[in-house]
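Molecular record:
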Amino acid sequence: MAGGSTVREQVGAGDGIADIVVETSSTVYIIELKMDQKVDVAKNQIQDRRYADKYLHDEKYKNHKVIGIGLCFSSLNCHLVDKGAWKISSSDVVTLL
């Protein structure tokens, strides 16, 4: 990440706690980590618990892109087994990867 980025873990947002949030000057990345699951579980958690709401409705972030990222790892070898990223808007989630 470029200088000036803020990385926080266990960020209270919406109806839950996002695993990791990275804020840059133009983008907010909401990252949900899962073990031995499909990336849709992470995606659904970001959506269902409304982790992006605080960024979509705050004047401070009005010119920021909000991206949800799900990463799923294997408990057998700790390798990444599934991933996905979505651009989040106030009305829907659009698949980017």
Summary: The mean pLDDT is 81. Residues 39-48 form the longest helix (10 residues).
